[in-house]
Amino acid sequence: MTPRGVLLVILRDLFPAWEIWVCDRGVWRAAGFTLVSSSTVEGLVGHLAGADPAAFERAARRITGSL
């Protein structure tokens, strides 16, 4: 599996309400109640944080182990 593939698996697990993919032009995209996109994975995570703060907070808690 490629690093991009690993990141997709992780993001899909952390944000289950969102469909997350990388388009054929290399743009990171997530579709939930809105569509967000970024040229970088860091930018996509930033957009997800703004679009769905509750999901971002849950993801941050899971990553840090403070469920």
Describe this structure in words.
By secondary structure, the protein is of the alpha+beta class. Helix content is 52%, strand content 18%. The chain has helices at residues 3-14, 41-51, 53-64; strands spanning 19-22, 28-31, 35-38. The chain has a 3-stranded antiparallel β-sheet with strand order 1-2-3, with helices on one face. Strand 1 (19-22) and strand 2 form a beta hairpin. Helix 2 (41-51) crosses helix 3. The longest helix has 12 residues, at 3-14. The mean pLDDT is 95.
Defining traits:
alpha+beta; 67 residues; globular
Could you give a quick summary of the protein structure above?
With 67 residues, the protein is of the alpha+beta class. It is 52% helix and 18% strand.
Question: Strand share of the residues?
Answer: 15-25%
Mean pLDDT, rounded to whole units? Answer: 95
The secondary structure category is alpha+beta
User: How far is the first residue's CA from the last residue's CA?
Assistant: 28 Å
Task: Give me the number of helical elements.
Answer: 3
Radius of gyration: 11 Å
Overall 3D form: globular
Query: What string gives the helices and strands in order?
Result: HEEEHH
How many strands appear in the DSSP assignment?
A: 3
Cross-sheet strand order for the largest sheet: 1-2-3
Question: Describe the biggest sheet?
Answer: 3 strands, antiparallel
Low-confidence sequence ranges: none
* Helical proportion, percent range: 40-55%
